[in-house]
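Rotation project, supervised by the postdoc (A.L.). Task for the rotation student: set up a whole-complex structure prediction and record inputs and outputs verbatim in this book. Inputs entered:
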Amino acid sequence: MKLVAISLRNVRIRVVSSLLTMVAILVATGLYAAIMLMAEQTRDRYEGSLAGYRSVIGPKDASGLQLCLNTIFNVGDAPGLIKFRIYQELRAGRTLGRRAQLLYTIPQARGDGFSRFNFPVVGTTDEMFSLFQRDERPLAFAAGGPWKFTHDELVQLVTELAAHESARRTGETQVPPRPQLQDGWKQAVLGARVARQLGLGLGGEIVPSHGKPGEFGSHDHPESACRVVGVLQPTNSPIDSTIFVPLGTNLLIADHADGVFKVDPPPGKNPEDARNLPVTADDIGLTAIIAWPKDHVGPRILREELSGKPGAQAAWPGDEIPKFLRQIGNVADALVIVAWLVLLVAAVSITVAIYNTMNERRREIAIMRSLGARRSQITAIILGEAALLSCVGAVLGVAVCHLAALLMRGTVEDMTGVYLDWTAFAPRELYLVVAVTVLGAVAGLLPAVKGSMTQVADNLASNY
Amino acid sequence: MIELRNVRKSYRQGDREVVACDVGELLIRDGEQVALVGRSGTGKTTLMHIIAGILRPDLGEVRVRDTALQQLGEARRDRFRGQHIGMVYQTFNLLQPFTALENVLLGALFGRGAGAAAKQRATMLLDRTGLAERMHHLPNQLSVGQVQRVAICRALVNDPELILMDEPLGNQDKQTGGQVIDLLLQLAKEGGKTVVMVTHDPESAKRMQRTVDLATLRRVA
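Outputs recorded:
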């Protein structure tokens, strides 16, 4: 028999009080562990998701951070459009991007979603699967393969589309035919989570929808239904939650006609007048361009080059996201302080719970003292009791935190784009359990001292 | 050997000082079985607590096994009591949440240690006192006589040289209780242990080799 056996027995015989105290510790520890888990995994996820996105070029209508969040993390709506001309200039590498030595420049257009999860549908070219690289590897396929929609096809399409649209807008008698959506473009590649969550495989069909399901004005585009030809392997990044379709499909969706061109009204004209102005292929609007400068100096060069250009900016995810994470870190720090306060309250509840039992335990303590127990041993028994309650509460708190992560990971991913790995136990959780145990033991000090001061003779004699 | 000289213990009750124990001289030899008798309020229990080192006298000298208890600090007195003294109380003072065996082992835990040897000895004692089948029962599942035997086993588990008993028969059935006391005295005699029983009951006192009336021990003013 050991002193801890007495502590354990004391916890067991006061089962209701012990359980309530343990629950208080559990909630506080669980809260703390959850905050840390979210903060760490958000950081890891965000940092890990930057692979492949050394530079993101987009409109100046939003901040660089918004641009990165939307393009890389699928957060929020696209902040605006940049002209196709910028993309062409970057591709040509003469006036833009020459010094940055871009290894790839991939256009993106987004705006539609799919399913009640509103997985973003991103229009792009097949360079997303041939040139885009994460950790020096192109995106790998778990099933099927990429669709085909090349840069040249894109250039030809936008040229024809602009010719048609320009003639239509200016009221010319001879309007070239509008390019038709080819069957070969009605194809989709799904991110791993999209496929898993929707149970879609090769041959499955997605129908892009505009707006969020259930909201006013939202509608499907059945004419642009795409057949699934490929499913990507998991990347543990927002790519897993993305649907890639040929950019041509995106541009040719029936009621996107007005929205695919970015026409700035001339001075003195109102935006409605812009609808009747002629357009060119340069005016096709993209939501973003993903670029990969050869080295880490490239994003700065690109940022400087574009700073003088109207309507476009180059965001540097490697700079924007860490700044953003530091802000999140500050919020997490504030929440951690709240969690510590809750822990402190729980510790006080231990003090109160045990202290309140000290009167009824005077005889028990006196008996142990009469058997030879020293004050230090009585103190150790009561501290052990407090530490046991805290330790078990803390372990359960960490376990509940991970259980909650398991149960809520889908919801959290939908809301924040962060995929919670519930199996990721960090060493700091062990430190947390130790810290809470020590805190609990400290909380037991007051009742322990009171217990150790019990007068032996008085409390033995009182029973005669 | 137990040796008390000019021992006095008093308490303050408001402005008044109440003398709880006043002993001129008391000598008890090793292996002796002595009853300390006296009327209620004569300080029998206080004296027993002084001999056990639970209380420290205001005055005087208390030597148990050549150790001057009044000179020891509290922790050393506790350790001394745990290792060398076994105690049996009127209410037996078993801890209710612990089984009979665990109660006996508690004595060992605060005495010479509750290792495998102590467990073996506790089991042997419980077996010897007829509690082999009851050692895993809680005190409230035992009869008064069985509880008394567990208390005796607990007092003996550290193989102490001195056993102190405070009104061990109390108000219980004298015949049954007496048999258990006889068993303890027999075990003590076999081990050459000193036994001191505090009682107000002359019948209980007769079981001991010698009877000392506390009234005769008072110091001469």
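Student's summary: Chain B touches chain A through 33 residues (CB under 8 Å).
Supervisor addendum: The longest strand of chain B covers residues 16-28.
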